[in-house]
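WARN no homologs supplied; continuing
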Amino acid sequence: MAMSRPGLHETVLKILRPLPRGLILDCPAGEGALAQDLLAEGFDVRCCDLYSELFRLDGVEIKRGDLAGTLPYASESFDYITSLDGLEHIDSPPQAFREYRRLLKPKGHLIISVPNIMNVEERLKWLLFGYTSHFKPLSEQSKSKIHYDCAGMDEIAVHANPIGYNELRYYLEKNGFAIQGVYRDRKKGNQWLYWPLVAFIRLLAKLTPEQRRKDRWTDELASDPVLLGGNTIIILSILK
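OK structure emitted
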């Protein structure tokens, strides 16, 4: 059933396990792989997806909804929202953050994930090729292939918006969220190849004046979950 990358669901469950059980919205829900795991952990789960017909989990409510629009739920309905690998697929990520804020109860928790475009490997690929692994140029030929392979449900495969730590933090804070943790899905086996570049980046960060480091989130951008992250960056935040 699962359509996620290795390590992503396991990391999310590890984040949620110490927290009190409550009502959680999983959007986008895909086929229901994460929802199944959340149920097993004791959460009360609701699901939403642009293509609700793909959902396969029996006994769980599924509604059709677009993260770039207004989701079909009342305000302050949920204790938790999990939104994994969805923001990069939509035309209007800022609207999704407004919906997260609307749907969560005060002190509710939000877990989001996107492809990590700011790890050292992806930074180097951007420098060399002008694009990263998850955000390749969308030629007419590639779009036609996606349209055929996905039976017209292009949004499943098209990565339209590369979003890094900076943008995620900006939209979270703008909408009243405070970051509680930043995580990676898994360590990459080839990280040792990039250690000289990592050491140089961290040396530059250390030499940056303290106030500038704070203003430009230099330490955060050189942290393990960001700079040495796997394929995915995961952020836990709380609505103030």
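The chain has one domain: 8-239.
OK
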